[in-house]
């Protein structure tokens, strides 16, 4: 894997150190997460963040273990770091950090206090909500080390305050149980019980959200490090609180072995590929319903559009076809009116997507081809035929084939059904009602996929070939525009008319959605070098492609500010790294080189979410990363793009 290491110039700098975040997932949707400097900048940061059985809903438990070193002289040095609502940063333990390393995907810090060096390592038990924290004396000593356990128990999206009840902490052998939800274990536990008021999260302040909360100082562990190599080991875990995990050093060693095996199974071509293989592993989780995909850390759960878009990069390029097969079968069993639910992150199952189900057809087709799995084709064909039939006759939100041209149309008042689905105060920013270019490219690709799978299974494809031929003919006639690229939407409602009214117009905003018309396995168009060059010239950046060309009326170059500002910019110029996959494939099919276009994302791997790829970035230079630091389809599509 690529080396990711930082010295004191980054670790000891509050802005540089906090801009780089690490993630240790537990394989269930929970995680430990923080910054290189140790300063918590998000409400989502913590050492034990526990996911429910779906992997979508998370609660923050153990916030931190603040180290303090006591020397034989009585000198007391605090190594933790906190920012407060007053503006103070105290303590400032990052000023003593001499090194941070990401080793086999696990974070390691080294603090130096004169000739004393103390090292910290963090790992999680895969498949269990359990974190292990090991502090080790590297040189010097003896010293006494205490670890202040800072706790809460709340929804990951919220805060907890001292004006409510204090967390219930019950002493047990070797530690304590907090809120009957998670257990702490380590040496020489001493209860405390005190509110720390006004912990400040600067990243939440920048996002226009409530940045402050109160934390509960539950107690502390302590031990003497009398010689180099001596350790202080602490565990925290949820679920079965009576089932004590192995010692923390064993958890760390097991996590390293597993991460190495994940990388080896992916058969990486180089160190970057190996890094991306391990990054991909973070998103594949086991839930009560079987394998699933976390769309992004720290705040997303499972989104079917993201899952199916990322499917090839997460499963088929990493040696996980068996898990992928199980996932596809489970999703097929949850189809409703020929549609996949988009997400349940909002607390209810939502079917408000025109493209996720079409990405599902694509994922099944790629699985059958790449994994050589004709049995899955035969098993899922009835479900896939149901998808086609319901789209031909019509399903939710006006999603149906227009009988006049065979293209797929969609739209309903107040809805944004494509991947460009942002809303501001409930109003869609880019509703894209009508016939979006990528939705119809996916529809045509899906029809061709179902026809090919039916032929493989030796069954009749029914109306699929005729529907496919008609849609292809209409696509080739309707979508090319006089602007030199493809229309983004045809038959869109005119701006002065309500949805469903007349007349219609064809939207020729220069957006990246048209890339799917050239990149999909059964794309409706052969790549056009002139059009591809127009797309690249306007949209390509070091971190991926802009969602709208600069110079467009609604272009917004920064994805910053409060929720309304960020949502308003989300698909109006903001860069999306996942689009590098369709761009690379279209370029490859056109016989054009792609390699130099990938350098920026490769250089991004140690810049934001360490060893991973961010959700989004600013449209204007220097294209600072935004959104989730760790995003599934960004990793998956970048990894896939490197194969062209």
From TrEMBL:
Q: Cross-referenced Gene3D superfamilies, in alphabetical order? A: 1.50.10.10
Domain (Glycogen debranching enzyme C-terminal) ranges: 279-638
Task: Domain (Glycogen debranching enzyme bacterial and archaeal type N-terminal): give its ranges.
Answer: 20-226
PANTHER family named in the record = GLYCOGEN DEBRANCHING ENZYME (PTHR10569)
Which protein, by its recorded name, is this? Amylo-alpha-1,6-glucosidase
